[in-house]
From TrEMBL:
The keyword Signal applies. Coiled coil: none annotated. The keyword Signal applies. Residues 1-19 form the signal peptide. GO terms for cellular component: cell outer membrane. This is Nucleoside-binding protein. InterPro entries: Channel_Tsx-like_sf. Keywords: Signal. Gene3D superfamilies: Nucleoside-specific channel-forming protein, Tsx-like. It comes from the Bacteria.
Length: 260
């Protein structure tokens, strides 16, 4: 493939942003202590980690799209830096057909094309599947993805993570805004399950569960009378079998978000 993984990530995510019906872009900063190398000699070692994230979501005539790119900076005895990104491009069957596809709690069904890509690991994954938009009381959105998890890693011979067999993913993302008096909050995030597979050495890559809920406080409204702009809060990360290893992680990170 002539295109780099990053070029693919940006192209898939950004294409439908032109002529968007709505658009939200955020810059995140997270600070916490994370296990960066679960396959190393000391898999339980934690490193103070800074994560800078560009995140974007938008809706357009035929659906919606979402992407994020993380840039991580940590020190485990030697300063390390890396990036990782994901993009999902959803074609709404309701928007395309003009029909009401609601059934029970399901508001709409979409066809999804996704791509995951990493820097030093040289990871590439493709995720075709479906998205269910669900009608959940109190939720700004509540979406569930069911996709394949198709490997296109460059492999160890090319300086990356091992090639892997294919698997599947179940991911649910949500946002629940709420108020306490004159103060606005939001509980949002996602939780995913990715099935087990085997790598190029014949070793089992274990199924993992990753949950990353955030509690945000609208600080911009309180300080500057500028709501939905500046948020602070925490993100809790629970990762069972991190990266398919035997190591699990439970960590709280500080969070700041600038929306524009």
């Amino acid at each position: 493939m002539k295109k780099t993984a990053l070029a693919l990530l940006v192209a898939v995510a950004a294409a439908p942003a032109f002529g968007a019906d709505w658009s939200t872009t955020e810059l995140h900063y997270q600070l916490g202590s994370l296990k960066q190398n679960p396959f190393g000699s000391d898999p339980e070692q934690k490193s103070t980690t800074n994560i800078y994230t560009l995140q974007h979501a938008s809706g357009w005539k035929y659906g919606d799209n979402f992407f994020f790119i993380d840039y991580s900076d940590w020190d485990d005895g030697q300063r390390q830096r890396d990036w990782y990104g994901e993009a999902y491009f959803n074609f709404s069957l309701g928007k395309i057909s003009g029909a009401d596809l609601s059934l029970g709690p399901i508001k709409d069904v979409g066809l999804v094309l996704g791509v995951n890509a990493g820097g030093d690991s040289k990871i590439r994954k493709y995720l075709p599947g479906i998205q269910l938009a669900l009608d959940v009381p109190g939720a700004a959105f509540f979406n569930t993805l069911i996709t394949a998890y198709i490997d296109d890693n460059l492999g160890v011979a090319n300086g990356g993570a091992p090639k892997e067999g294919d698997s599947w993913m179940l991911d649910t993302a949500w946002a629940f805004p709420f108020a306490l008096g004159n103060h606005d909050f939001s509980l949002e995030g996602h939780a995913e399950y990715i099935g087990s597979r085997t790598n190029e050495f014949g070793d089992k890559v274990k199924a993992h569960i990753l949950a990353q809920p955030q509690l945000r406080y609208d600080l911009g409204k309180t300080l500057f009378n500028d709501p939905q702009r500046l948020f602070v809060g925490i993100e809790y990360q629970y990762w069972h079998n991190k990266f398919g290893s035997d190591i699990s992680e439970s960590a709280v990170q500080g969070l700041a978000v600038w929306r524009f």
